[in-house]
Write a structure and sequence with these properties.
There is one protein chain. The protein has a seven-stranded mixed β-sheet with strand order 1-9-8-5-4-2-3, sandwiched between helices. By secondary structure, the chain is of the alpha/beta class. It folds into two domains: 260 residues, Type I PLP-dependent aspartate aminotransferase-like (Major domain) (Aspartate Aminotransferase, domain 2, 3-Layer(aba) Sandwich); 128 residues, Aspartate Aminotransferase, domain 1, CATH 3.90.1150.10. Strand 4, helix 6 and strand 5 form a beta-alpha-beta unit. The longest helix is centred in the C-terminal third of the chain and has 19 residues. The structure holds pyridoxal-5'-phosphate. Pyridoxal-5'-phosphate (PLP) binds next to helix 3 and helix 4.
Amino acid sequence: MKIQVPFFRADLNAQEVEEVVATLRSGWLTSGPRVRSFEQGFAAAVGAPNAIAVNSCTAALHLAVEALGLKPGQAVLVPTMTFAATAEVVRYLGAIPVLVDCEPLTTNMDLNDAVRKLAQLKSEPLPGSLTEDLKVVGIIPVHVGGLMMNIEAVRKFSAAHGLWAIEDAAHAFPAAWRQTSVEPWQRCGEGTAAVTCFSFYANKTITTGEGGMAVTHDADLAERMRLMSLHGLSNDAWERYSGGGSWDYRIMAPGYKYNLTDIAAGIGIHQLARADQMRRRREDIALRYLEELGGVEEVELPANDVNRIHSWHLFPIRLRLERLLINRNEFIEKLKQSDVGCSVHWRPLHLHPYYQETFHWRPEDFPVATALWERLISLPIFPGMRDNELEHVIHTVRGLCAQYAR
Ligand SMILES: *Cc1c(COP(=O)(O)O)cnc(C)c1O
């Protein structure tokens, strides 16, 4: 039998389907009781007092930078190894993303390079920046693939440079971190950063189709993000039309339209309840990959760490190109011919036309990411992956490495 392994397949069960139907039958489609319940459940799951459900992680990031008061002409440290969203929200407010190189093993932001980039800004103004005297006010670390950065190092770095921090945790639910094995676990979202932003996009670790969550320990930030998530209105539709609510409202600020629907939240409530179980399945798959591909000389495998609970959103391997006769793109093409779906996370931001043309970043400004990205392939990893699918991926990767070894 021919096996075709997609890069990702959504894991949705009967309860989730029935909840969507029940929501439709209830007649309340937009933000209402299911959104409230999803917010409360998610806040409890990450150990935060405030969670604001929105229609994407991008929206959550935008609300976070807005609430923190980011202004045109200011700058924010952003890893070059990330998705478009992390940097674009800085541009939404007319501010400038100062890109930072990554660590070679984890692909997470390299704080040593952040120090270098800050020093560099002092001596030469960034081309394309509007002002000579660019003030860096924040940092947006990304937990790439769900392997958390050392958040204590991020906290110290931010404190030393007077920066706020927003975590882009699009990959990192559920995930946790501890300094050493004798210290307690700290969940992603438990309160190191000012705001932590999660994604429930179709292929993220839990999904609502499209959706996101902004989590914070700061009541003022929470209030501002909630206000701005729905046109800046003084009270939302559910408050106006349920029970003893009033039809009247006041526009307090020119806000956005970022609220999550109850249809989506209905899926989220059940995905949340299964989040640990789905994470364990992804972890099993990751451990199998690590074991079965561990001896293959042509590839390097992602970092694991006893001081992390890894969400295993991604399983990125790094090809050792010096040992192979084919490059990364050819390798992906061969995987495709064997019906294995893959992806690459990511072409770094500094190698995209917009960032090159606007800020004149050069590949040599980010030597690690520039070299690393040519070697990256993300293998399929999702909770509904069947054993024969996993076998097929392992067998195919091993086979290609043997066939094309230099
Ligand atoms: C997916 C992703 C986002 C955006 O999430 P959406 O919910 O699609 O807006 C942001 N950052 C990273 C690192 C992502 O992978």
